[in-house]
């Protein structure tokens, strides 16, 4: 048999034999002092630059810490923590949100464990890679520290700890007993996520036997995540269809897609949001645009779809023509070839750009405060307008920044994990 | 196989030829006249090798046989079915015609086994177990059954091309088209692919092969075709084609490559 060729585009040799030892990092000899000297002070100019940077960074860090621990008064965040979390959601109905959070944590834990239980067929993977230990530690730390820092009641703090424990326990159980399930069954379990999303909508909104909570009372992180997740979920299929439409051979479809994409991309989101509040009610059939919250969600969706279409288009353009030809030559119809051959590869290529779009979409939800929605920034503005907390802008904005950073970091981490799992160059696993 | 005069079908073909291409003309959108009345008939079980200088339209001609290229004039019939613009017809023909590309065109996001079973599952609607059994059989035949779980990017060029051949065979085609199957390979991998093709020919597969491999043409082909400037200038059995070509254009071509 022939010697395996290094596959193009991958820096690591992708070997035919899975028994190839993983690449080891060569560490130069010497202790910490040697290493510091080598990396920071190898020449006089390097040394000067390093010293200057160290002093700037440490000064900045020191003042921030001093401000955070000495000068800042965090009561503004502690007192209003519920407002920041869920807005004016009636407290008698908040059990639904607790239930939803618990279900989401359970689904996350199970999914996480199953992903570890079913690694890619061409990769070996330990049941508990080091990253998972770090994630568990961070999770526990957050579940313990946040309620304490916010000064939550013991009962509520215990709930958070319980939810975190549930997540970790299910992660362990699914990782341990997942391999006994068949791959097909596990695939069906993925359907739990869309079902859970629908259930979440019902829980938040009310319906069935539960009282309706009007959307005007939704707020804070709840509203931010709701708007962002809705827009991300719906804009994805829309964007793919638009990208395909733009490459279609039917002129009407092609020009329609181009017109839509270029119109949306040519207008600032804030004008579209104002426009949406005013005219969306006329454009959509009655009942589809019932209130401000959903109107804003649809505008965000339509806005994001245009940008997503361009990301998908770049992915489609990167697929060699031979792929479609090979699929068609095998007798696949064009929709089959798109679904099974072209789109999986194109979306994988477009993934980093798409997630970038999702992250900016999440941040763009702050614009909703300008049209009067009480999402995170809107809530912050009302809190800061309260005479009791006048002047505590820094505390509020820093909290907001950290919250957004956490959400965006989670999206980014998820995206990178997905990229690795779908990596077409098939380098040996390093986990 | 009886020797045949250029352009005329072999007399031994009692049943209808599997491929009949008559006076095929193709213009590219920019006006370039790529095929100028090319004709070819291939009987069942026959191996036809198409040779010719680059730009002579041999790949284009081959690609019209499963409608990867369209044509404006003339007619092509595959197994009696006319190849028209009707999409249903094109899909029916593509199911019966296998194609192997110069660049392999394996699906890099699927394992070797998934590459082989995709079309049988979707197009032939076979059961998964049956499709996989057949796929493993064919991988065995091209000599790489042990690579079934790997991804194409982990295989050598020669292995990839053999997977591509097996992928086509999974659809049980009545006719196999090869578009310069060894041109993208490193020299030491050419032979393993040619041996697989030779084995196919020995088993009676009908094949049309565009290639520059003289030895393959000499040893395996029933007839060798020379194309130049978009038309077929000579069709002859290999012995006659290489030793005593009837056409001046063929002589010049052979002078250049031998």
Short synopsis of the structure:
Chain A has 431 residues and is an all-alpha fold.
How would you describe this protein?
The complex is a heterodimer of chains A (431) and B (258). With 431 residues, chain A is mainly α. Chain A contains 17 helices and no strands. Helices cover 70% and strands 0% of the residues of chain A. In chain A, helix 10 runs antiparallel to helix 11 (251-265) and helix 16 (376-385) packs antiparallel against helix 17 (393-421). Chain A is globular, with a radius of gyration of 25 Å. Mean pLDDT of chain A is 84; it is low at 1-20 and 427-431. Chain B is α/β, with parallel strands linked by helices and 258 residues long. Chain B is built from nine helices and ten strands. Chain B is globular. Mean pLDDT of chain B is 88; it is low at 1-13. Chain A binds chain B through residues 1-5, 7, 10, 14-16, 121-122, 320, 322-323, 325-333, 336, 340-341, 344-345, 348, 422, 424-426, and chain B through 66, 68, 91, 94-95, 97-99, 101, 103, 105-109, 111, 118-119, 122-123, 147, 149-151, 153-159, 164, 167-168, 171, 188-189, 192.
């Amino acid at each position: 048999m022939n010697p395996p060729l290094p596959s193009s585009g991958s820096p690591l040799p992708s070997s035919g034999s899975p028994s190839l030892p993983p690449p080891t990092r060569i560490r130069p000899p010497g202790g910490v002092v040697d290493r510091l000297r080598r990396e920071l002070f190898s020449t006089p100019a390097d040394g000067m630059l390093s010293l200057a940077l160290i002093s700037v960074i440490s000064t900045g860090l020191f003042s921030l810490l001093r401000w955070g621990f000495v000068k800042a008064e965090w009561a503004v965040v502690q007192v209003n923590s519920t407002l920041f979390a869920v807005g004016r959601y009636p407290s008698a109905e908040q059990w639904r949100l607790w239930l939803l959070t618990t279900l989401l944590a359970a689904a996350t834990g199970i999914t996480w464990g199953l992903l570890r239980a079913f690694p890619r067929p061409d990769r070996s993977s330990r049941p508990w890679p080091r990253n998972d230990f770090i994630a568990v530690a961070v999770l526990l730390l957050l579940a313990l520290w946040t309620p304490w820092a916010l000064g939550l009641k013991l009962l509520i703090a215990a709930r958070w700890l319980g939810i975190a424990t549930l997540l970790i326990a299910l992660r362990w159980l699914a990782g341990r007993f997942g391999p006994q399930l068949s791959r097909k069954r596990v695939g069906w379990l993925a359907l739990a996520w869309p079902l859970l999303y629908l259930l979440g909508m019902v829980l938040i909104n009310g319906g069935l036997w539960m009282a309706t909570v009007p959307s005007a009372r939704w707020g804070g992180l709840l509203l931010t995540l709701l708007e962002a997740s809705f827009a991300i979920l719906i804009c994805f299929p829309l964007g793919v269809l638009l990208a395909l439409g733009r490459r279609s051979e039917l002129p009407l479809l092609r020009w329609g897609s181009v017109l839509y994409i270029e119109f949306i991309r040519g207008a600032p989101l804030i004008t579209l949001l104002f426009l949406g509040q005013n005219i969306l009610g006329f454009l959509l059939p009655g009942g589809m645009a019932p209130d401000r919250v959903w109107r804003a969600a649809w505008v965000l969706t339509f806005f994001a779809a245009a940008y997503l279409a361009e990301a998908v288009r770049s992915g489609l353009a990167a697929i060699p023509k031979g792929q479609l030809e090979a699929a068609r030559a095998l007798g696949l119809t064009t929709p089959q070839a798109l679904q099974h051959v072209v789109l999986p590869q194109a979306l994988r290529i477009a993934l980093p750009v798409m997630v970038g779009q999702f992250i900016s979409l999440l941040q763009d939800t702050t614009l909703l405060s300008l049209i009067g929605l009480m999402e995170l920034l809107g809530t912050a503005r009302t809190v800061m307008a309260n005479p009791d907390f006048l002047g505590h802008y820094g505390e509020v904005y820093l909290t907001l920044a950290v919250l957004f950073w956490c959400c965006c970091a989670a999206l980014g981490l998820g995206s990178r994990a997905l990229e690795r799992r779908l990596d077409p160059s098939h380098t040996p696993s390093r986990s | 196989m009886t020797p045949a005069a250029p352009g005329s079908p072999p007399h031994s073909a009692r049943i209808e030829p599997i491929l009949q291409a008559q006076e095929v003309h193709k213009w590219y959108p920019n006006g370039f006249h790529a095929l100028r009345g090319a004709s070819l008939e291939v009987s069942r079980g026959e191996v036809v090798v198409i040779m010719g200088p680059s730009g002579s339209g041999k790949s284009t001609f081959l690609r019209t046989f499963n409608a990867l290229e369209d044509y404006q004039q003339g007619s092509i019939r595959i197994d009696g079915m006319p190849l028209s613009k009707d999409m249903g017809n094109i899909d029916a023909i593509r199911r019966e015609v296998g194609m192997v590309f110069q660049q392999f065109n394996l699906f890099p996001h699927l394992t070797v086994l998934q590459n082989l079973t995709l079309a049988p599952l979707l197009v032939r609607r076979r059961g998964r177990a049956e499709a996989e059994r057949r796929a493993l059989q064919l991988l065995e035949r091209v000599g790489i059954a042990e690579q079934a779980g790997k991804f194409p990017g982990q295989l050598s060029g020669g292995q990839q091309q053999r997977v591509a051949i097996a992928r086509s065979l999974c659809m049980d085609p009545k006719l196999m088209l090869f578009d310069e199957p060894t041109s993208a390979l490193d020299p030491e991998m050419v032979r393993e692919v040619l041996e697989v093709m030779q084995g196919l020919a020995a088993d009676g597969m009908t094949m049309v092969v565009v290639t520059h491999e003289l030895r393959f043409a000499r040893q395996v082909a029933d007839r060798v075709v020379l194309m130049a400037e978009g038309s077929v200038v000579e069709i002859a059995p290999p012995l006659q084609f290489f030793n005593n070509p009837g056409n001046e254009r063929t002589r010049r071509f052979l002078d250049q490559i031998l």
